[in-house]
Amino acid sequence: MPTSSAPDKGTSIPTLTSKPRAIPVRIPAMSSLEPPKSLLDLEGLLINDTKVKVAGIDVTYGYDSRAASIRIIAPPSVPPSATRLEVRVPGADMNPYFALSAIFLLGLRGIEKRLALPCEPIGLLSPEDRASGKVKMLPTSLEAATERMMRPESIAREPGMFGNEFVDHYGGTREHEVRLWNQAVTNWEVERYIELA
Prior knowledge:
Largest sheet: 3 strands, mixed
Number of strands: 5
Distance between the termini: 70 Å
Helix content: 25-40%
């Protein structure tokens, strides 16, 4: 099996890298690199999913790194037969069918289009790379994620991906969720502002 160098460890990994080639850019995202992240909406079904991501999740990959959004587990950490990917972005309440569909479709898209990885592994990145914009970030709100997914140029709309009908319907349910959230008065607001009334 051909191998590819793992620059942050100086090791080799099987050509499973053909698949991660698409995933670090596209799994949290289904639009090209400028607006990656348009799939976050599928990965965060509820208002609270993006609320816990307020600190920001970056679009990164790493070899055996739990800090990366895509973790590549490969030799020398494990035997070659145990080489695998761990996609660390979706929450526990994510619809597993949407998540797996996105991973496979985006992986195949990356292989077919021979997409290059957008940056070095996380082990070679510095905190300044995040601040300078070299490391792309995921949206931190359901509203922003939904906007990205519903853009006309979103990869989610491409033939062979989720398609316009799905994006319009599912995106509409997320817009409805945001509207309901914006109309709600939370306990925090009541406790915080009741004394001002």
